[in-house]
Amino acid sequence: MSDIKEKISKVCPSATFEEGENLLVNVPEKEWYGFAKKLKDDKELDFDVLSAVVGMDWKDSIGVIYYLTSTSHNWDMIAVKVVCENRDNAYIHSVSDLWKVANFQEREVYDFFGIKFINHPDMRRFFLRNDWVGHPLRKDYDADPKLNPIRLDDEINEDDTCSYVEENGEIVRKPGKVFGEDDYVVNIGPQHPSTHGVMRFRTSVDGEEVKKVDVVSGYIHRGIEKLCEDLTYPQILHFTDRMDYMSAHQNRHCLCMCIEKALGLEVPRRAQVIRVMMDELMRISSHLLSFGCTAMDLGATTAFFYGFRERELVLDIFEKTCGARMSMNYNVIGGVIADLHPDFVKDVKHLIEIMPSRLKEYHDVFSNNLIAKNRLVGVGILPKKDAINYDITGPSGRGSNWSCDCRKKHPYSIYPELKFEEVLMDGCDSYSRYMVRMKEIEQSIKILDQLVDNIPEGEIRCQVPKIIKLPAGRWYQQVEASRGTFGVYIESDGNKNPFRVHFQSPCFNLVGVMDLCCTGNMIADLITIGAALDFVIPDIDR
Amino acid sequence: MTREDFKDNEYIDKLVEELNATGANVMVGKMDDLINWGRANSLWPLCFGTSCCAIEFMSLGAARYDMARFGFEVARNSPRQADYIMVQGTIVHRMAPVMRRLYEQVAEPKYVIACGGCAVSGGPFKKSYCVVNGVDEILPVDVYIPGCPPRPEAMFYGLMQLQRKIKVERFFGGANRKEKIEEFFKQHPEEKGHIG
Asked: Which ipTM score applies to this complex?
């Protein structure tokens, strides 16, 4: 770490450092853009992944914390803190031209905090209506329902956007339009079954060819991050189950680990094994659903039934141990909430036994089907360098041959002891993403097979203080969820409720490449590209 | 003919008896029953899942729970072909106008089921700045199914409650639910641009 400090001091002498879990670099706003460029381009630093963008309101000041990762330097992570000069008229230079993933992230920060990003091409709100009053995550937000009643009229001027540019030392607002006057715009969603939720794409087409996709999000934005600030730590756990409900265990595992890390708790071995087994079962169930939905989006209803048949087996295992088929609420701070059901080992062994033959069945019925191949192979190309630039993790990133498995890169829990392969495919298309998922089921089965006979006896959770108060500080924890790297950021001021919680969801980045992947393809392929990227909308909107 | 004469159905019973004696298959019933029987057993849902509940609804469609047994399986993607909206998931401020428009696009008779905690009352997100606290703030709801998410069996129970509700409806005369719906929209007007 110390040599990173030296290198950073060399390129940016005015930077100051704060030690912590990750090195935090304080950079003045004026130097931020130049510094960011060096961070990315300097071969010795080479921070090519922007992992998270966290808007912050420290009451007296307002700013952004960027988490950066360097894939070439052992996946080292640093945090960069940029504070706005003026709280009420906050500006920060945009880095969306360096890391494309920042495009939507910065729009989110603008929506929540009102920080305007200079030179951002499209400074619109991301989640809330364009006539929303105020920025809800600011600490001085006025939550009076009279200001923001339930509006039943449509949003007007949807096509209006703007950007802020510097001219002669002044910051000028430049209005613009999302689509040109000659563009033929087709609206897809928000109520459309194959957007996998309530996502809306405004798509301009030339004949049948997609020219541009404008993602309109926020149709299921529930304000979880703001809700967390008023609740205690054990009370916020259940939100993670309801964000990406297909990664409920992994997400909750992540949040629990983040809190445990801050408290310095040692989770008993039995709980760790149970958690990992549940994570892998969740991954299987998620990939099976993804298989079924991809098939159904192509019109193959039979394959959907096949996928759901095995998924029910996994859900039965969850139901017996956790008491629910979905939204299991199983992980708690310090361990898990209940011990395993007596049938658990038997049921998991049954699943391990039948899955290989069932996977073969899937490949026979769908993967090798001519229509499926025609619709998926060579469609929705996402080159590796774009996958990195857009921070597309999970099976979608690995379908572009980017080795990004958080279980290998930032190992957590008992994953370092386990033998499994990171599945990589180099097709960079929808079919590769789909096949990575199918092969990951095999790997998850392999992990379960190693653990099912080796669940140690012992406690299922450790002693936890009655009132959980995190020491003042900030923590960032990542796990490999079903759809990619899921991150939790917690900043505490020493109270029993968090000062700020941010969830960095993998699907948020996935939807960011829809424009890139769909442009030039047929409009019918937009659906299959979306299915192969496999985003879950409540995870994007939070 | 006076109104009382309509109530004298003895001759119809006789007629049926005579016809049955000669082997003709005839039965007599109310037109209402026939219509309701047909409607209650071919309820087509509008696919309107916003979050977790939608996945459980998909399980309902798959082989294990198989909602085709009850005539619910023809999930429609266009509101114009649907009979009822099963609201599965949270409704947020941005969604509210879309939700209302979808409801208006469904052909009469139409029904609304609030499925899951969020649709019933806002659920775990009740205190959020942009969550509608229950879909009944913007739409008249017929059946509530609590749960987070409700089990498939619970969803079946809710759907069968809707069937029961339909089976006692009166198509010809009587107090009509249409009037109740009109009353609802009078109390929740749209002209002002917002509710309440």
From this structure: 0.83
